Amino acid sequence: MLDDLVISEAIVKSFMEDFIDSIRLDVAIVGAGPAGLMAGYCLAKKGRKVVIFERKLSIGGGMWGGGMMFNKIVIQKESKRILDELGVKVKEYKEGYYLANSIEAVTGLTFQAVKRGLKIFNLISVEDVMLRKERVTGIVINWSSVQLANLHVDPLSIGSRVVVDATGHSCELARLIEKKVGSYLKTESGGVMGEKPMWAEVGEKTIVDNTKEIYAGLYVAGMAANAVFGGPRMGPIFGGMLLSGEKVARMISERLEKGDSD
Ligand code: 48F
Questions:
Q1: N or C end: fewer C-beta atoms under 10 angstroms in the chain?
Q2: What is this structure's pTM?
Q3: From the CA of 4, how far away is ligand 1's center (Å)?
């Protein structure tokens, strides 16, 4: 006999346990696109308490839809080892160009990350950050449905030793700092430089260089990194996103290992 009420109780109790356990984090990642997922995978592998908050119902961001809804992605040689490690099938197309199925890539990455302890909360939007002494110390969240319905409902706060803006083209946390605090980002202008037109060759290189701390306690990864530092977009080639996620995780791990979150 199945009891409907036990089903409800099981879901709510288990969710609340996860949620309460996520109020104090090592790393809060905003956005479950390829960069955020890859960062989450690498940090979870290192045993960090890491959670991704994703606005949408689905995870995968722009990787889910491949190129113009043709659900294939291209990656380059440098990042093939990552998909190999995840067990995602990769086929050489031409020298230097490798193909994967976008759905297999997203689900493979997500599965491996969650198995290693990454938590993902979908349907939650990050609408603000917490700042103490000119340092980001956490994020402010609300249900995406509250935002969509434009309801006046106050959010909740999550504390985190460091925060990653992996929100893609919109680089929402960087823009938030610029708007609320001023032009204090670690860019040439101090503000968001804005992404440049499509150029895969350059975009894929700059995205890894641009993956860094942009304000005390706030890192940027993935397309958000090029948007903040004025790099080009690159379309449905995803090696740079994975490498950027890997790099931000490495930088954060080294910092947290030193016991440094100030
Ligand atoms: O856009 P997205 O996939 O970012 P990414 O990981 O990868 C970029 C590529 O997909 C593609 C590209 C490749 O050449 O340029 O665009 O850098 O994933 C960003 C995720 O962040 C979520 C958004 O729904 C998406 O799934 N997101 C954005 N703003 C917020 C957010 C927010 N304020 N709160 C929570 N999630």
A1: N
A2: 0.98
A3: 36
